[in-house]
């Protein structure tokens, strides 16, 4: 099945996310999307080298790859297209390292929860006592919090998204407010009285719930354990919808693993049509890479242990 974010019907919304610099390409055996952004090439090394580059990826900058191919011919067609383009291209969030003239390194993994649960209570009961206690303790902090769904997305909520973006260790590209106003997904909003605590956005397609973006009121984050509660809401919604997988996205992999998620490796790949530049970038690419800590967490009581 095609990556739902690459389907033509979603493209009019995705195209607006980055000031009209997005393109959707269809060849004989491939579909892929590109956009431009100013990227910090040393994000994972805590350095700073800003450069405007072409991204072969999804414009909203989520944890899915930006291309779909029927076979090896499709990859050849993408590479052929790239040979006509000037400048550097980064292929982000590829599920496999690309061969040929690409240089590839691991990037932030996505975190996947396999949904085998009959209900959210079943999920909680399957957690080992330590992790169940942590979840229930967080949920008690959300008692009395007003939850809304798909209410108008206003500037106050967008400012919370902007706060998350500004606090991110690995910012890639920022979505415009119009994306949150028009994307046909679901936005859950959380308020203490009239004060917004945060929101989370998700989309359900092809038996998967995709956690896309969130916004957080950092001043009240610890008081209400907002981020953990939002992740628990995402898991609850996935279970209620009966999806097979809940894709919690990239970053903060430890807290997501402790909710039962497993790491899905992803890769970032570089291409340049100049052979000399490609050789030089083979030495630079490891600086762009990221390797997740290899820690085992035994989350569930029985056969559902995650690592």
Write the layout of secondary structure elements.
Elements: H1 11-14, E1 23-26, E2 30-40, E3 50-56, E4 67-69, H2 72-82, E5 89-94, E6 103-114, H3 120-126, H4 129-141, E7 146-149, H5 155-167, H6 177-182, E8 186-192, E9 195-205, E10 208-216, H7 221-224, H8 226-241, E11 245-247, H9 253-257, E12 262-271, H10 275-288
Parallel strand pairs: 3-5, 10-11
Antiparallel strand pairs: 1-2, 2-3, 2-4, 5-12, 6-11, 6-12, 7-8, 8-9, 9-10
Describe the structure.
The protein has 307 residues and is an alpha+beta fold. It folds into two domains: 4-109 and 265-288, no CATH class; 111-257, 3-Layer(aba) Sandwich (Aminopeptidase). The chain has ten helices and twelve strands. Strands 1, 2, 3, 4, 5, 6, 7, 8, 9, 10, 11 and 12 form a twelve-stranded mixed sheet that branches. A hairpin with a 2-residue loop joins strand 8 (186-192) and strand 9 (195-205). It is globular and about 60 Å long.
What keyword list fits this structure?
307 residues; alpha+beta; Aminopeptidase; 2 domains; twelve-stranded mixed beta sheet; 10 helices; 30% helix; globular
Summarize the structure.
This protein has helices at 11-14, 72-82, 120-126, 129-141, 155-167, 177-182, 221-224, 226-241, 253-257, 275-288; strands spanning 23-26, 30-40, 50-56, 67-69, 89-94, 103-114, 146-149, 186-192, 195-205, 208-216, 245-247, 262-271. It has 307 residues and is α+β, with helices and mostly antiparallel strands.
Q: So, CATH architecture of the largest domain?
A: 3-Layer(aba) Sandwich
Shape: globular
Mean pLDDT: 90
CATH topology of the largest domain: Aminopeptidase
Distance between the termini: 27 Å
Total helices: the number is: 10
Largest sheet: 12 strands, mixed
Number of domains: 2
Say how many strands there are.
12
What low-confidence regions span 5 or more consecutive residues with pLDDT below 50?
none
Round the Cα radius of gyration to an integer and report it.
20 Å
Order of helices and strands: HEEEEHEEHHEHHEEEHHEHEH
Q: Approximately how much beta-strand content do the residues carry?
A: 25-35%
**Into which percent range does the helicity of residues fall?**
25-40%
């Amino acid at each position: 099945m095609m990556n739902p974010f690459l389907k033509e019907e979603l493209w009019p919304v995705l195209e607006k996310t980055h000031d009209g610099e997005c393109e959707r390409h269809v060849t004989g055996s491939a579909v892929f999307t590109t956009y431009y952004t100013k990227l910090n090439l040393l994000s994972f090394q805590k350095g700073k080298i800003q450069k405007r580059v072409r991204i072969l990826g999804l414009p909203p900058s989520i944890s899915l790859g930006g291309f779909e191919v029927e076979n090896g011919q499709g990859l050849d067609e993408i590479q052929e297209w790239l040979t006509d383009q000037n400048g550097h291209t980064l292929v982000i969030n590829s599920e496999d390292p690309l061969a040929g003239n690409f240089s590839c390194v691991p990037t932030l993994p996505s975190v996947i929860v396999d949904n085998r649960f009959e209900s959210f209570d079943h999920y909680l009961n399957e957690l080992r006592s330590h992790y169940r206690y942590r979840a229930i303790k967080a949920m008690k902090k959300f008692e009395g919090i007003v939850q809304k769904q798909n209410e108008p997305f206003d500037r106050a909520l967008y400012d919370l998204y902007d706060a998350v973006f500004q606090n991110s260790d690995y910012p890639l590209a920022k979505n415009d407010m119009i994306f949150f106003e028009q994307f046909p997904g679901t936005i859950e909003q959380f308020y203490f009285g009239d004060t917004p605590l945060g929101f989370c956005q998700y989309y359900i397609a092809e038996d998967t719930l995709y956690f896309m973006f969130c916004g957080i009121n950092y001043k009240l984050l610890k008081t209400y354990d907002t981020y953990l509660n939002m992740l628990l809401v995402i898991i609850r919604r996935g279970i209620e919808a009966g999806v097979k997988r809940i894709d919690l996205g990239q970053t903060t992999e430890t807290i997501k693993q402790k909710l039962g998620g497993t790491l899905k490796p992803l890769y970032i790949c570089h291409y340049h049509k100049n052979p000399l530049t490609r050789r030089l970038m083979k030495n630079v690419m490891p600086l762009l890479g990221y390797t997740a800590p290899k820690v085992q967490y035994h989350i569930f009581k029985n056969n559902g242990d995650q690592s």
